[in-house]
């Protein structure tokens, strides 16, 4: 494995470089000191991934292996990039470019556009919906906002996987996509969308990466300048890279191998967006001389949580041994994870709400508790239960914090107050006074709903001011306002005091003291439409693994036998819990399940509803003279049978139910569900 000792001058003994390695464990130190050649860091959940890669960069700089300005570190979120920059600054390293893929591409394309495009960089399409709506109209489609969002997402998937309008239908079928309209129609909308962009002279965010890659591939002078500027690359969350991002990375590298990739194959959960874990899994094949370092010491979770996570992922089919990570808990002992069965969903939600309230009353901050579920439609029953129990909550994945109207208004008022001067040592009082002018009362939070959400947003600004003063008592209002601007740019919202409600996907990268993972029944996790594909089922297993590893100390996994009170026959708990629940045994990986076996998969109440839905579908298809699957696929009927939607809004959130089908069949489906 390449080591610093192999470098000319061997400066590894310098005090600055060695100081950077102090405090790292043996594996982190090994990864941080591998500063030349291709490097693959397999970093398990909670193993100090960000700490390791920032110390690696800092070590390379202090050891003389890196020039800071020649390092480009790319990640997937502005917040993660900001965290990299902040930690590097704390290590005494400035000048390193830590950016998202899109931010790095934008910076380069803006500079090279006159050479590559013959003029300044075209404007960016901030939101695709207008152009997609125009393209759909030209394709004579009847759409609403939901179906337009689905079409925009499908176009994004096509572009990130490098599918063109001409080969979209074939590629979508091969990938098992369930587009909102038939594939040929989506391809027409996609082609029309691309034409509309060219007509308007604009680029979308996928074009940023595509055109930048093209500039490097087809313009030697551009490639020479960029590759001369950037000689060392770090790619975070490499398991989430898609083909378009990999193409840009290859263009940046230009055949060189000075790249360090960091990822966790056990946290590959975004294949549906185009992410391709094969780039991580095949890294050692592509670079046979690559240094591969495993980080398995988990500093986040108790040994009890770690043990459960290992059991869960250990039941997955074997990968190459080099990619098998087994976490080693480093924290003190904690409580055993709890497994709870409930008679129905409202009872399950009420039990979770009571437990959250008891934790808060015992001293656990509400912001250190999370309730995680598979699909967003599951949140409603928990929102109601928490509200009934008087427990504040925050729904993650909603409107961005700094775009909320009350926050924007507050920032404007704070900026105005800062312009008028600030009394030293009075930041928190000043912030409270400014917010009070909007009607906010600190110690009188409203009981719930939108008013409570608004109160919590403003309270989070006060809490942030308190935290900043605790770090630096000299912080004044102008510096606070500047800090808010930096956070807004990085999409780094302050902590809102409430129990977090989030989907398992939205929870990735986060952690809490206590986590409730709820609704763990077959057909929800694994989700119904994954059942015909073993690879999709395994991604669902990894999704549960991500949820489990969010917990630091307390972990509760629960399920309910039926959805609504009074239903007669139970539904099966998630197969992923077999071998985890005390007294149960692991089940062997099941062969691919064909959709026609859905009655077996969905027994009990859901199975009965599934059969009613199939009967309705058969009648509807005959009346329209179309095949049954054109109405709804069996996978979609399974999802409906499990979720039992009671409104068009809930129905529209299920996979395979686009706006067109909602208009055509929505009321009939709800009538069938209600019996």
Automatic annotation (TrEMBL):
- Name the enzyme group at the top EC level: isomerase
According to its UniProt entry, the protein's GO biological process terms are: recombinational repair
Task: Identify the CDD domains for this entry.
Answer: DEXQc_UvrD, SF1_C_UvrD
What region holds the HRDC domain? 603-675
Residues where ATP binds = 43-50
Region (Disordered): which ranges? 570-592
Enzyme Commission designation: 5.6.2.4
Question: Origin, by domain of life?
Answer: Bacteria
**What are the residue boundaries of the UvrD-like helicase ATP-binding domain, all occurrences included?**
22-302
- Answer yes or no on keyword Nuclease: no
One Gene Ontology molecular-function label: ATP binding
* UniProtKB keywords: ATP-binding, Helicase, Hydrolase, Isomerase, Nucleotide-binding
Q: Does the keyword Nucleotide-binding apply?
A: yes
What InterPro entries does the record tag this protein with? DExx_box_DNA_helicase_dom_sf, DNA_helicase_UvrD-like_C, DNA_helicase_UvrD/REP, HRDC-like_sf, HRDC_dom, HRDC_dom_sf, P-loop_NTPase, UvrD-like_ATP-bd
Q: Which reaction does it catalyse?
A: ATP + H2O = ADP + phosphate + H(+); Couples ATP hydrolysis with the unwinding of duplex DNA by translocating in the 3'-5' direction
- Gene Ontology cellular-component terms listed: cytosol; DNA helicase complex
Protein family according to the UniProt entry: Belongs to the helicase family. UvrD subfamily.
Please name the PANTHER family in this protein's record.
Answer: ATP-DEPENDENT DNA HELICASE UVRD2, UVRD / RECB / PCRA DNA HELICASE FAMILY MEMBER
What's this protein's name?
A: DNA 3'-5' helicase
What is the phylogenetic placement of the source species in the record? Bacteria, Bacillati, Actinomycetota, Actinomycetes, Geodermatophilales
